[in-house]
Write a sequence for this structure.
């Protein structure tokens, strides 16, 4: 589904990603773990075209997408949940979702009502301006917004940040359900419990390079690996 | 030290906080928990003057502080670290904290002396404490999300508050930073006698460091009590803790 | 001080009407400015230049179609498109490369554009005063309130609300209006949900300029079309969108009404100091409501 | 003495952008035309050359440019501008200070050669005192008693109105002002002002307006049909630059005073000038072109008379000197350095020949009739 | 970062430039000296504006009003009273700062463009007063031929006077820029909300910033009278304000010295392009666009970036 090959990304003059390569096969959940500032978000942004990589190639469904404008990448079927939420503060919750809607994917397509079913809390505040929402509500909205584009690959950058435990729990179930329906997910998470429970495959990134990758079993079960790469 | 009595705030008829009560004693670590949208952030903003309460009283050190402007509240000794990152984007990490330190030292109106002479040690100490010392010269806008959260707290500390309010301090922090933060919170209360009021969705953390916990739902304060008491409360179980 | 003229009820009434019809032109121009301000967050100081181009284009088109009624109507319809074309070229060739920049940099760009367009107009049309004749249906006056009121002003009183309603429907009932509002806040994120922001911005800019051109074409028959029209309107337009609430289309309408009416009543009441009235109105409004009369996006 | 031949360099500052550009360019054309004639023969064995600068109608830029011309280009003379404020600034801060003669050819403030006049400043156009006086003198010959005054709310408007009223009242004490209205210069909607004036039923109306506001005023007069019912006097209301764009839409029957019309007087010399101008620039000369033209001739003749490029001798020669202009003999008055220009009072009428409104039934007021006296000037200057 | 303000290593280039400027009149003809002096005055005005725009983040849209107040105060005292010249020179900045205090007091309640627009309105009221009040200000004619003390009335002496005042003012501004107050203003520019939260009275500091900046604008006004000997209402007109604002942007408003560069570029362009073509605004516009495209951080920002190899941070 997604192949990232030897990607180098810069912010201005500072070199952030040093040859990151990773792969997300169709229908799997792949997580990227790493400490603060390791480069997880930058990887996501590079895929999304928000910080186009200077070197390396990114392939989505076999086609090279490096250098495309973000809106093109999104239209190809990649949904993005940024770590800093970035809801459209001036629009109401409903409008936020509405403008993101992109009909695709047949009967299972995400629609406004399905998103509200998924996050009942959002349904209740449909008319409220997004800028006024609580942290958790904004997070839900961001996820809902990404779903409305009906993606085939979902980039989730810390989706559980600020969510109450019960909501996290529900979200976890839903992500798993989405995967079962064929969606591919690339997940960056600080909540390692969630990440380890959900994923099929894991990468550990540090200082802009991939330090470890393998099946999630290893990470989950191998205390040494966890201590070594995740510093816990 | 801080008493909040039947505090109410509504937005266009929607009661975000309704009749909330809270008390915080000196030296305590108090946690506020509750589902998303329960009104925790609103409560904190009411206390720190970023919002004006419709009704109710906020008493700090025996004096009413309701309706004061944020900078006045801050000068009384309450600092807030925001849930949504809110730092000085174009300035360096060092300057971010230094501004708070200068403000605390009442030096912000010095016109003719170099800022390189004021508040240096204090700032460095704080940065050392939170683990940002090696990033001191970075422009804060270029920090990663997690580091910005750390900086958020560092700025709040720059004011040497008596009461530090942390709105989801560890959200977005890696486990490593989280543990640094927990250590720091413990140290601050122990060594400096700082009082801490915070909210968090990470229940492990809440139950491991809070002396007392207040639970909010739909803007109301359900109960306030010791962790054990809260954990066993059925209503809380149903409303919030759910699976955990 | 001597009062300009006896203040009769009918004088007040007529001045009010004049204020209102003047307000319509101001509204059409400033709603465009407000739109650009709301979406691009750019104080487009070249807006006045586009208004001037609108007026000059109307003059040229009117002549090209042989003057008279047909010429007038065709010019009125076409010249906003000419202006929109100019705007589109400027946007695609230059402006669209700058959106990522600091906002004040965009202000600098529009300032440069104002300088360039001002001189270009002089190169193309020369320095002579130009004038457009009104079509016969709109010529002359009608008796209203015991005085005569020009038909053309009545026409403006009809066009203004039409534009307001059209704009309202457009910005609120279509998705593009919402997208524009979203893009104003977070351009990258709009991009990341699969919307080509670049075109949204281009569209907003061009629409704003279209309105400037329409204002210019509408005002042309009532004044002499000359260089310097840009300076006259731009500061007024900015003050109007400010008192109305930046980026708020209804605010632009309200602001125009306040402006038009205080101006024309000011002349009636205290002619010597008429120049200060609009400024005074702005001061009063802003001291009373620091973010303008209506909700603003800024 | 000054035997070696050299060119005389004239520095022109004027506003070549914005609404005033139309006048500035016209003046320059007149000036250039005159130089062609002059340079054929030559002046002091050399030529008169010129260079010009755009002031953007801003005083500070006018000062920059004037100083640049004087200090860097080292011009012998300065000529300009349409902006009274700039003219006055240049007159004092550059011309007087550096002892460089300065010819004001369009700006109309009476203070330039009046109150603020000095040895180095000259005015070759009409000024507001003349304009107002012309109006006052002309109207005092008419039977009207009840007047209404309306105009542009700025210095020029007020000074024309004041001067006209002062002179009218002095000559005909029974006149009475029943009301005034002022509007913002450039105000587009004037029809309502005019209708309210009409409802006050004055005997006659004085409009004090100029430049592009004039077009708006004339349009409003036309729309409301005012000119058919009331006598109206507008200074420069018969200006071709204003009437031409209006075409057939110009109101008829408006009285106006003007210091120059290309179609009057109908003398062969004048016709020759107009034809030559038309030939060269594709249109008839406006009043600025005429001023530009006579400015050049005054300059050339004064140098020839002085026989030297020396500034002081040049000024001495200029004072009281006369030239033969297309419209007759003109004198540079010695006491205030103001050219004595005649004024033409006429009434607008659409002309078959030109397809636009022109001034008809022209009466000429001589320069002596419309200029303030030398005593008045002395008094204004405070000595 | 914590170097003191008097670090020789960073200071010597400035000292060298200053010394070079001192010798300039010997190398230049009168007109160039005059234009250089005009550039200094404009540079001081732009620098004073940038204290609040670039470093304070305020949309100070009508800065020229204060410049005009300074110039008029100085000119009026010189023309209308018998007071010694230094009184006029000293009174002007205080008059400007006082006006700044009054206007600022209203404006600081507002944000961004609202602030700017209110200031334009208030400043325009001032302009209208100056424009109409013939008896005091000479109305739209202005006051010309202001008597300048003999010691600084020639082109050369006025050049030195202006250069010295400029150098002194810029040094003080640099001190302020680096002071805790300067830092606080920059913090307010970045994030006023957060500033309140760390205990800073934002409004009070902004007002103080305005007063300081308008004080320097008043000094620039005095210098204008010294070079030109004239005052006129254009000095208080919004167009001039906009131009000065543009100079700050052009030079690089996040840098300290940028506005000086912006002022120099603008004045030089308008003077020298103006001698070749009447379409000089067009050329100015084109040059501006080229600069925007190729020097995104302004001229000075670009220079700093080049010098520091990428770290464009003062
Ligand atoms: N300015 C406002 N206008 C309208 N509603 C608001 C406003 N501010 C907050 N709210 C609403 O008030 C409720 C409480 O918000 P608050 O931010 O206090 O929640 P919270 O407890 O902090 O939640 P979270 O854990 O998700 O951060 C939310 O439903 C929010 O949408
Ligand atoms: N706009 C920027 N300019 C310069 N450097 C940046 C910028 N944004 C991020 N960086 C740097 O890039 C590095 C990687 O950041 P990134 O946001 O990818 O980290 P992350 O792994 O997502 O961390 P976190 O868990 O804290 O979100 C960090 O060192 C950060 O400081
Ligand atoms: Mg991240
Ligand atoms: Mg919250």
């Amino acid at each position: 589904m997604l192949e990232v090959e030897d990607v180098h990304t810069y912010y201005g003059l500072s070199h952030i990603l040093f040859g990151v390569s990773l792969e997300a096969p169709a229908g799997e959940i792949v997580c990227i773990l790493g400490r603060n500032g390791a480069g997880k978000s930058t990887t996501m942004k590079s895929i999304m075209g928000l910080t186009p990589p200077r070197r390396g190639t990114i392939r989505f469904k076999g086609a090279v997408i490096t250098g495309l404008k973000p809106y093109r990448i999104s239209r190809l079927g990649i949904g993005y949940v940024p770590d800093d939420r970035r809801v459209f503060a001036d629009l109401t919750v409903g409008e936020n979702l509405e403008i993101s809607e992109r009909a695709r994917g047949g009967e299972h397509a995400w629609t406004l009502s399905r998103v509200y079913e998924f996050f009942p809390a959002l349904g209740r505040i449909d008319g409220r301006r997004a800028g006024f929402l609580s942290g958790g509500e904004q997070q839900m909205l961001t996820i809902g917004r990404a779903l409305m584009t009906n993606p085939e690959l979902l980039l989730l950058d810390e989706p559980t940040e600020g969510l109450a435990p019960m909501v996290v729990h529900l979200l976890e179930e839903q992500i798993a359900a989405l995967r079962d329906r064929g969606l591919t997910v690339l997940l960056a998470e600080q909540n390692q419990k969630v990440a380890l429970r959900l994923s099929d495959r894991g990468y550990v990134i540090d200082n802009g390079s991939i330090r470890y990758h393998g099946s999630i079993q290893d990470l989950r079960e191998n205390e040494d690996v966890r201590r070594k790469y995740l510093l816990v | 030290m801080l008493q909040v009595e039947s505090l109410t705030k509504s937005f266009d008829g929607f009661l975000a906080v309704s009749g909330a009560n809270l008390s915080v004693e000196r030296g305590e670590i108090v946690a506020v928990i509750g589902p998303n949208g329960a009104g925790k952030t609103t409560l904190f903003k009411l206390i720190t003057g970023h919002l004006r309460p419709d009704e109710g009283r906020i008493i700090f050190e025996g004096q009413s502080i309701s309706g004061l402007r944020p900078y006045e509240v801050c000068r009384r000794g309450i600092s807030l670290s925001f849930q949504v990152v809110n730092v000085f984007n174009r300035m360096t990490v060092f300057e971010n904290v230094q501004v708070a330190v200068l403000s605390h030292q009442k030096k912000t109106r010095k016109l003719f002396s170099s800022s390189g002479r004021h508040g240096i040690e204090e700032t460095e100490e704080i940065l050392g404490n939170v683990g940002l010392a090696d990033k001191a010269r970075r422009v804060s806008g270029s920090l990663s999300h997690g580091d910005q959260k750390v900086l958020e707290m560092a700025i709040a500390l720059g004011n040497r508050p008596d009461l530090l309010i942390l709105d989801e301090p560890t959200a977005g922090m890696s486990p490593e930073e989280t543990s640094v933060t927990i250590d720091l919170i413990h140290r601050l209360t122990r060594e400096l006698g700082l009082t801490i009021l915070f909210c968090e969705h990470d229940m492990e953390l809440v139950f491991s460091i809070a002396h007392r916990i207040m639970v909010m739902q739909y803007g109301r304060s359900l109960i306030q009590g010791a962790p054990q008491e809260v954990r066993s409360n059925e209503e809380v179980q149903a409303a919030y803790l759910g699976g955990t | 001080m001597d009062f300009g003229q006896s203040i009769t009820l009918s004088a007040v009434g007529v001045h009010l009407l004049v204020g209102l019809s003047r307000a319509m032109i101001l509204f059409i121009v400033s709603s465009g400015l407000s739109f650009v301000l709301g979406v691009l967050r750019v104080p487009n100081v070249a807006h006045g230049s586009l208004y001037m181009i609108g007026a000059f284009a109307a003059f040229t088109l009117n002549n090209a179609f042989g003057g008279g009624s047909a010429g007038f109507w065709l010019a009125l319809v076409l010249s906003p498109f000419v202006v929109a074309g100019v705007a589109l070229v400027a946007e695609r060739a230059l402006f669209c490369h700058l959106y990522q920049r600091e906002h004040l940099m965009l202000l600098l760009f529009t300032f440069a554009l104002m300088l360039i367009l001002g001189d270009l107009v002089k190169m193309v049309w020369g320095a002579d005063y130009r004038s457009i004749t009104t079509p016969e249906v709109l010529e002359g006056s009608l008796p209203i309130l015991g005085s005569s009121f020009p038909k053309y002003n009545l026409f403006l009183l009809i066009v203004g609300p039409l534009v307001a309603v059209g704009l309202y429907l457009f910005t609120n009932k279509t998705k593009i209006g919402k997208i524009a509002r979203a893009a104003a806040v977070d351009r990258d994120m709009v991009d990341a949900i699969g919307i080509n922001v670049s075109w949204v911005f281009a569209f907003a800019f061009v629409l704003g300029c279209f309105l400037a051109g329409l204002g210019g074409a509408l005002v042309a028959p009532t004044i002499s079309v000359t260089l310097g029209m840009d300076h006259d309107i731009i500061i007024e337009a900015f003050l109007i969108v400010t008192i109305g609430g930046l980026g708020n289309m209804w605010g632009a309408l309200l602001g125009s009404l306040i402006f038009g009416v205080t101006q024309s009543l000011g002349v009636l009441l205290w002619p010597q100091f008429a120049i200060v009235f609009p400024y005074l109105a702005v001061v009063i409004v802003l001291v009373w409501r620091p973010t303008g009369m209506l909700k603003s996006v800024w | 003495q000054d035997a070696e031949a050299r060119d005389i360099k004239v520095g022109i500052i004027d506003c070549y952008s914005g609404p005033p550009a139309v006048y500035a360019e016209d003046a320059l054309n007149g000036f250039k035309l005159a130089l062609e004639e002059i340079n054929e023969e030559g002046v002091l064995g050399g030529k008169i050359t010129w260079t010009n600068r755009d002031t953007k109608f801003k005083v500070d830029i006018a000062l920059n440019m004037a100083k640049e011309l004087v200090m860097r280009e080292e011009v012998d003379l300065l000529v300009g501008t349409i902006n009274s404020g700039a003219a006055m600034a240049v007159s004092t801060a550059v011309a007087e200070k550096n002892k460089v003669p300065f010819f004001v050819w369009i700006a109309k403030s009476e203070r330039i050669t009046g109150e603020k006049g000095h040895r180095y400043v000259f005015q070759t156009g009409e000024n507001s005192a003349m304009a107002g006086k012309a109006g006052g003198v002309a109207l005092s010959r008419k039977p009207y008693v009840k007047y209404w005054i309306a105009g542009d709310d700025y210095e020029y408007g007020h000074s024309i109105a004041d001067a006209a009223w002062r002179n009218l009242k002095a000559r005909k004490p029974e006149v009475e002002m029943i009301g005034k209205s002022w509007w913002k210069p450039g105000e587009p909607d004037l029809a309502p002002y005019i209708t309210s004036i009409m409802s006050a039923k004055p005997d006659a109306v004085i409009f004090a307006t100029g430049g592009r506001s004039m077009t708006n005023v004339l349009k409003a007069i036309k729309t409301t049909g005012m000119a058919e019912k009331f006598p109206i006097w507008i200074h420069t209301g018969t200006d071709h630059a204003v009437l031409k764009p209006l075409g057939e839409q110009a109101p008829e029957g408006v009285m106006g005073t003007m210091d120059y019309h290309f179609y009057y007087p109908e003398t062969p010399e004048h016709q020759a000038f107009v034809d030559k101008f038309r030939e060269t620039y594709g249109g008839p000369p406006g009043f600025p072109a005429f001023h530009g033209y006579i400015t050049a001739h005054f300059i050339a003749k004064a140098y020839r008379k002085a026989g030297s490029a020396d500034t002081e001798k040049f000024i001495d020669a200029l004072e009281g000197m006369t030239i033969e202009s297309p419209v007759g003999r003109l004198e540079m008055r010695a006491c205030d350095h103001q050219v004595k220009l005649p004024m033409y009072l006429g009434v607008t009428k659409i002309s078959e020949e030109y397809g636009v409104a022109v001034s008809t039934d022209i009466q000429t007021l001589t320069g002596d009739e419309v200029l303030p006296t030398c005593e008045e000037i002395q008094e204004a200057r405070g000595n | 970062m914590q170097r003191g303000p008097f670090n020789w290593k960073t200071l010597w280039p400035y000292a060298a430039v200053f010394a070079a400027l001192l010798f300039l009149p010997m190398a230049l003809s009168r007109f160039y000296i005059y234009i250089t002096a005009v550039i200094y005055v404009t540079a001081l005005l732009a620098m004073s504006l940038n204290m609040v725009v670039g470093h304070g983040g305020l949309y100070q849209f009508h800065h020229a009003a204060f410049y005009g107040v300074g110039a008029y105060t100085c000119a009026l005292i010189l023309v209308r009273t018998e007071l010694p010249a230094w009184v006029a020179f000293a009174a002007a900045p205080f008059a400007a700062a006082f006006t700044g205090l009054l206007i600022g007091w209203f404006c600081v309640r507002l944000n961004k463009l609202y602030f700017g627009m209110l200031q334009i309105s208030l400043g325009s009221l001032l302009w209208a007063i100056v424009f109409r009040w013939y008896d005091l200000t000479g109305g739209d004619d202005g006051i010309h031929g202001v008597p300048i003390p003999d010691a600084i009335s020639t082109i050369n002496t006025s050049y030195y006077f202006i250069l010295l005042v400029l150098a002194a003012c810029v040094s003080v501004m640099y001190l302020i820029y680096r002071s805790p107050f300067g830092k606080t203003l920059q913090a307010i520019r970045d994030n006023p909300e957060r500033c309140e939260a760390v205990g800073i009275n934002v409004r009070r500091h902004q007002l103080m910033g305005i007063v300081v900046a308008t004080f320097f604008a008043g000094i620039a006004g005095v210098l204008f009278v010294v070079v030109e000997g004239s005052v006129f209402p254009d000095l208080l007109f919004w167009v001039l304000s906009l131009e000065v604002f543009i100079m700050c942007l052009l030079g690089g408003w996040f840098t300290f010295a940028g506005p000086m560069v912006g002022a120099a570029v603008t004045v030089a362009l308008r003077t020298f392009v103006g001698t070749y073509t009447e379409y000089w605004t067009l050329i100015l516009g084109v040059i501006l666009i080229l600069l925007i495209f190729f020097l995104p951080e302004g001229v000075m920002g670009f220079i700093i970036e080049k010098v520091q190899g990428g770290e464009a941070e003062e």
